[in-house]
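Problem 12. The chain below contains 254 residues. Write out its predicted structure in token notation.
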Amino acid sequence: MKTAIVTGASRGIGRAIAVRLAKEGHRTILCARDATALNVAVREMEQAGGAAAAIALDLRIPDAPARLADFALTKSGQIDIVVNNAGATKRGEFAGLSEEDWADGFALKFFGAVRLTRAAWPHLKTSSGSVVNISGAGGRTPEPEFTIGGSVNAALLSFTKAMAGAGVRDGVQVNVICPGTIRTDRYQKRLETLAAQQGLGLAAAEQHFITSHGITRIGEPDDVAGLVAFIVSPEGRFLQGALIDIDGGATKTI
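Solution.
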């Protein structure tokens, strides 16, 4: 049984990834800041026959990622998969974003991923393991109201490519997924705002969003989870340093 660490695992994409990896037979270590939500997720996974454990940590704190790696080792004695999913960044016009907003945006999604990868790397070398970073479409197609998120995601793409080179040497698989708009709590808030602005119902507002962005549909957390499961499976092992868009066609560039 392989051990997988999933950050940002209390809800949304991270929770879907953790559940899918548990269903695939992996011992799953969940991490997020909300202990209550984590415990609910672990109970549900165990009731479904999966093996899971959770630790509530704020990965913005510099020593927290190392504590997460130590927790995983205490629970299972190994680390085979790391999914760096934690991190949300503030949207808004550039002039309205503070120094603190920028620092906070990088603290969790970028530096949290860097520090956890560093802490887990020796163990991933031993297990010939895998790292999957969850970035975002904004890292490849920046938007004026997503300056922080686009910058953080682009940094994560670069970090992935660099670590993939190290992974070739050390026997560690490293890839990154760039989700587009996924049906999460954050999306729901955006949809409600759009509906209010346009004077539309939620269903009509969603169709307006899909049409205006030129995409096939809104993604589901399980879409991303399925892709993660494939990447870390034996069938996906040839993927190395890949930047994979899963966005319904949102990314128009080559």
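Discussion. The chain is about 50% helix and 15% strand. Students who got a different answer should revisit the alignment rule from Section 12.3.
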